[in-house]
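question for whoever is on the cluster today: can someone run the full assembly for these? two chains, 928 residues total. i dont have access anymore since they changed the login thing
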Amino acid sequence: MLALFYIFIGIAIGVSFWQITRIMNLRGVIATDEDNAKQGKYSLVFMAFLYAMMIYCLIFMNVLMLPESASIEGEHDDNLFNITFWLIGIVQFTMQFIIFYFTFKYKGNKDRKAKFYADSHKLELIWTITPAIVLAFLIGYGLWQWNDVMDLSEDKDAIVIEVYSQQFRWDARYAGEDNTLGFGNVNYIKGINTLGVDMSDQNSQDDKQVTELYLPKGRKIHFKFRSQDVLHSAYMPHFRAQMNCVPGMVTEFGFTPKYTTEEMRLNPEVIDKTNGINKIRQAKGEEPYEFDYLLLCNKICGASHYNMQMKITVVEQDEYDKWIAKQPTLASVIK
Amino acid sequence: MSDHHHKETFVTKYIFSQDHKMISKQFLVTGMFMGIIGVFMSMLFRMQIAWPEKSFSIFEAFLGPHQTDGIMNPDIYLALVTIHGTIMVFFVLTAGLSGTFSNLLIPLQIGARDMASGFLNMISYWLFFVSSVIMVISLFVEAGPASAGWTIYPPLSALPQAIPGSGAGMTLWLVSMAIFIASSLIGSLNYIVTVLNLRTKGMKMTRLPLTMWAFFVTAIIGVVSFPVLLSAALLLIFDRSFGTSFYLSDIFISGEVLHYQGGSPVLFEHLFWFLGHPEVYIVLLPALGITSEIISTHSRKPIFGYRAMIGSILAIAFLSTIVWGHHMFISGMNPFLGSVFTFTTLLIAIPSAVKAFNYITTLWKGNLQLNPAMLFSIGLVSTFVTGGLTGLVLGDSALDINIHDTYFVVAHFHLVMGVSAIFGMYAGVYHWFPKMYGRMMNKTLGYWHFWITIVCAYGVFWPMHFIGLAGLPRRYYTNTNFPMFDDLLQINVVITIFALIGGIAQIIFIANFFISIYRGQKATQNPWNSNTLEWTTPVEHIHGNWPGKIPEVHRWPYDYSKRVDPNDDDSDYLHGKDFVLQTTPLLKDEEVS
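^ ran it for u. tokens below:
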């Protein structure tokens, strides 16, 4: 099989060299009217290809996209994204048409004379000011949303959770009854104290270390991120949330889950996507996939970067209360 | 100057040449060689993404110890991605593009005998050559080349315990880049001095071709920002080798706590992107300058809005130095900084839009001569628009949160600076090949090259936006560990097929290039009927460029299809031709644009 492959490559290279030298002997170097006419037509053909591909992707890849935001804060993200996408979509479709249509329309020939047109203050003013106005709107909405998402000061009621990263796994620590995390530093890492929690700190005693995130629906979650070795990035695409984990400092992010995992599984977009995935998995004879929220690593961190994930489960408040009550406190684990 | 011809040996003429035309060819060929390596690497890792569990004998042949039975190891995947980025951004699109065309065109288009310092110019090339050699050598280090991403964020790049590529491979990477920066700085200073001091009589700054403006401003950006990368690299070398803690703090790895205290990786990110973002424009502006020149020449029309074009180059250059933070919205820096950088970043869209609209207006009612150079320039405008528009999504900090470091970003920057800049480079080679080698390139092969390349470029990068929007992170060795990405695999296969075809099709260009050097049709003095000064030099290269006196300049470079009465399209061409050389004196009552 391999030998055949090499023979095929050999033949292909031979043929292409033969063709290239043949074309080189034609010695055409400067576009003639005939070339212009031909290339002008090709530019229309290319435009057709480009539009077909753009439209195909926009329509048929829709099902592959992330479902609607699963966090309340992310709603405006989706909104802003849709506005921006429509806007750039319209500009893109218009501009590409103009570019390739002009290439066809004004293809050169001997009888044509180009228009001497070097300047127009009016036109230039129009295309400086129009983008400026549109951008002012986008910037305004974007900044409002950014400040809304990044502002974590006013949520006294928020549940504080530490997300801890290391090559190549995630852990989490809930702040417990006092809703305050005990101090953590790599110098305290020892034995089963894998997160380096200072056990002499009173706040540490009721902290709870887990390997999977459980979040109650409708409560603001205040994440604090730490990293043990290199940069990682906690990426929770369904919640429109991401923050780098930086060794030597604590970074923060917050959001409020909007749908429980069960509710999200019934979302029509999720059902469509899951069905598509399961069709593929079935064909390969793999286990069927069931939707779950995930936390992925999204900053290059080493060999197993591609497999650094943690499951997130969003549940109703009472179920969360039951679950968190069952988790042992650090004081009871680390003696 | 041209009269004191000293005897030239093979060594002074072809190797340690101080002639800017020879140096530009050296830059181009070295850049092309590095480009072949960079593109080939991308083909290898694309194959890995599309067929993650398949065994390929091509991996066995090229990856040596970094594969098992034809299956790529995760470490070498990251190394390939890293070196692909480094080579393409710095060695091909900075040195290969800017080095080639700044060297070739600056003296020729401003009317100078040579660069301000031919010796420094030679040093600049040879430093670039040495850094290329070191980068290539780093590929053969036992533990593998640098593999922390082209952005080499510490601690990953600082700790060999974290990834094997951060050992000797990373050391060589840093040494290579330090030498590269020295080369770039020497080159840039030379360009700036030459443009400011050596313009011929009558060549006012407002009569410079837009290529000159682009190269001039690019050199300034380089001088402003490259030293910061050098200091970032030096501090990283200190952290790696001398135990300092500029970037490192509180690290526990391989079972022990390291001694580093008080440093911050965020500091490195700031320093890196202070170069890293202007670097995008160091890559892009020369390509846009080349495009301005080519679109105007081959449309047989003046470039529309010459002054607005200069203004937008300056605006882009200024803004490019105050937007670096948009790479760091979620790095943990103060969110207030995120607001500032969102604001400045989106402002860049304005001058960019002006440029795009001006190109299109230049095409309007033109007499387009669709040579390969022209097609590549039009292709550049197309990819620049496509890639630039998605910048509005990424530059908005609120939206960036969710698509940061996904394939959406990869698609965006490849279109807007990768493909666009490469198209500018190809356009430049097709257009100025007769000036470089005295022969013409074959147009039929040029057409094949263009259409295959642009179809593949869009075939690769348009669908890539969507897998990014589906949440797929970049730099994943395989996506099979996430069932939620299973439905993206088919798209990745399609992308890879386009990438392979597009990559292999570049052979057409390479063949055309090298065969034309020796067997191409002999060029005439001004094959494209262009206005600029370089086409007044003889076809055969001579030291000092012009045999007699340097010509004097009397007008701007874009008097294409100028009429006797500029307001009457039906009147005759001025001087009876659709172009008027810059050296032609103005008529008594001629309107000046």
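summary bc i know u wont read the tokens: The helical segments of chain A are 2-24, 33-60, 74-105, 121-150, 261-265, 268-283, 317-326, 330-333. Chain A touches chain B through 124 residues (CB under 8 Å).
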